[in-house]
Amino acid sequence: MNKNKTKASVILVFFAVFTLNFGVQAQGKKQAGNSAYLFAYFTGNDKAEESIRFAISEDGYRYKALNHNLPVISSEKISSTGGVRDPHILRGADGKHFYMVATDMVSAKGWDSNRAMVLLKSNDLITWKSSIVNIQKKYPNQENLKRVWAPQTIYDPAVKKYMVYWSMKHGNDPDKIYYAYANADFSDLEGTPKQLFFSPTNGSCIDGDIIYDKGKYNLFFKTEGNGNGIKKAVSNELTKGYVLGDRYLQQTTDAVEGAGVFKLNGSDDYILMYDVYMKGRYQFTRSKDLNTFKIIDEEVSMDFHPRHGTVMSITKEEENRLLSKWYSTSSVLQGAGNPSIKQNNIVLDTVAKTVYLPVNDGTNLKAFDPQFSKLSDVSIKPEGKVDFSKGPVRYTVKIGNQVAQTYAVFVAVNRNPVLNGYYADPEILYSNKTSKFYLYPTSDGFTGWSGTYFKTFSSTDLVNWKDEGVIVDLNKDVSWAKKNAWAPTAIEKKVNGAYQYFYYFTAAQKVGVAVADHPAGPFKDSGKPLIAKRPAGIKGGQEIDPDVFTDPKTGKSYLYWGNGYMAVAELNADMISIDSNSIKIITPDDSFREGTEVFYRNGKYYFLWSENDTRSPDYGVRYGFSDSPTGKITITANNLILSKRPDQGIYGTGHNSVIQIPGKDEWYIVYHRFNRPKGITMGDAAGYNREVCIDKMEFDENGHIKKVTPTLKGINPIRK
């Protein structure tokens, strides 16, 4: 859990913290016949997401969600708060029973709101008996208890009992790890909790995970307060004597939390993984000795976005039982793994029994293998490469003891979205220095628009884009803001005969500027916000969504910005400051919400903007024009030029930029839309799970912009 962050800054997407404890295996004994892995996790900070989910892997790297990534156990039935987090799953020492523990908590009530944990026991991994242990109610002298977090379980062969350990915070003291033994039926704790470990640096000690290896107990944990990261303490005994190895084990300079360790089946190697929570991703590492770790991120995949959980090794029989109970034909078909498939845009209709697989430009439809996930006890026919060029192909899927089902599978080239993943607010630039196009989007997919970094992508044809990596990271590169990295814009200028690139961006509802000698960076921030307060006379709105434009008539450059109002100011010659005396409000009409875009064509200055809220399916683009880059803006009739297309499942089309092919009267509009097909079902979350598209933009004989039809197919590769 992101214990030190508010809900608004907690990153969704993101990826989970998970660990492995083998029970008997943890004590150095082999579990014969284990061939797969069960991953128990939760998914986020909304109450509906705070529940236990399961996933399966056969190699420890590639995981498939069970039950369509929905809960396998009702939080309402097992908890006192209505939510559970951080599930830890363990195979019993007798090989016949399974144990889980979880934090009894709903994060919306506050990070210091919970006092209890949940204990669960099963003999088949399907049906679970549960009980609640409220630490504050059960034990005396707990009046100043603040929170009870992330319990885990390990079998103690010395006393032949299961030891539960977790972190607690009392008053102003830092979090410390405590332990107690469970009773015989795993429904309660015995005795009084004892302190197991505290951080010698006097920082918080959370997310403990004990792994037994080569006669030693290795306690991995996250420390906070005096340096943040993953450390390890080692002891010869389970319940005492842990000595801190005072170095960080994460293989990144980014902020991390929630270390999880598990041993690979049939191997002496371990996996250490951790949540790079400010980047919305997980990092996997592999180790032979639990001391040195090698990054193996490229080998890992999941068809879900988990949070803190654990992995347990399971047998083939147990895997098949779980698949028969919670896996489905639709999950198999949605798990098509061919890298040409746009994974976020697969459309499955369980009523019509059809699957639509959008694929990248250049895919050979005459000989295409979707590479459907084929777990144990799953049969799929036909196999291998199939001809999709003449229409749909019928596939039959059989899972365990389930009835076989047949679906019609369609495959078609979709160039929209143009980027893999969630991105929004796209700015596009053509670089004369490199003869390439560059996209500068908002990094999306984070709850509450909480992303903290910007990337860029390059292309020679507007269809095939190369990820050039992070160009501005608020946490590393910007001193004046650390949150809400939104809506950038960029421009190429010649300074003293050399090309320079000025990148204007939103951070913490202010506008900043960074400078580079190359369109892909590295960019250096100016050190302070360029726009930090509302213009005179403006009482509402936000200082966001910059746009930069150079007037081809005069060579002067202008900055536009605003949410709820449109402001403009002339940039000084240095391009990193404005002439404050030139600030002018030029809001076109009441339809203006945000996302100004300005360009020049045939003597006219065109102004485009977005109306409605980015969370609305009706988010769209309107335009006007002027004889001046600073207005007044003339509004034309029928000026809504980009809007939803429900017949194609396209919604929320807005916040655009425009690109002209050099030397040609050929124009394209670059915009974001809701994720297709899930966005329209996501409510407000659709507004931060968006994707970037490009379509043709044309003009009539009077210079009016024709209505743009948002498409799935997108555009053909351009030729300059």
General description of the model:
The chain is mostly beta strands. It folds into three domains: 15-325, Tachylectin-2, Chain A; 329-413, Immunoglobulin-like; 423-697, 5 Propeller (Tachylectin-2, Chain A). It is built from five helices and 46 strands. The strands form eleven sheets. It has a six-stranded mixed sheet. It has a five-stranded mixed sheet with strand order 23-24-27-26-25. A four-stranded antiparallel sheet has the order 5-6-7-8. A hairpin with a 6-residue loop joins strand 5 (84-91) and strand 6. Mean pLDDT is 93; it is low at 1-31. Belongs to the glycosyl hydrolase 43 family.
Give a quick rundown of the structure.
With 720 residues, this protein is mainly β. It is built from 5 helices and 46 strands. Strand 13 (204-213) and strand 14 (216-224) form a beta hairpin.
Key attributes of the depicted protein:
Glycosyl_Hydrlase_43_Enz, Glyco_hydro_beta-prop_sf, 720 residues, 3 domains, single chain, mainly beta, 4% helix, six-stranded mixed β-sheet, 5 helices, polysaccharide degradation, Tachylectin-2, Chain A, five-stranded mixed β-sheet, Immunoglobulin-like, 46 strands, signal, globular, disordered N terminus, Glyco_hydro_43
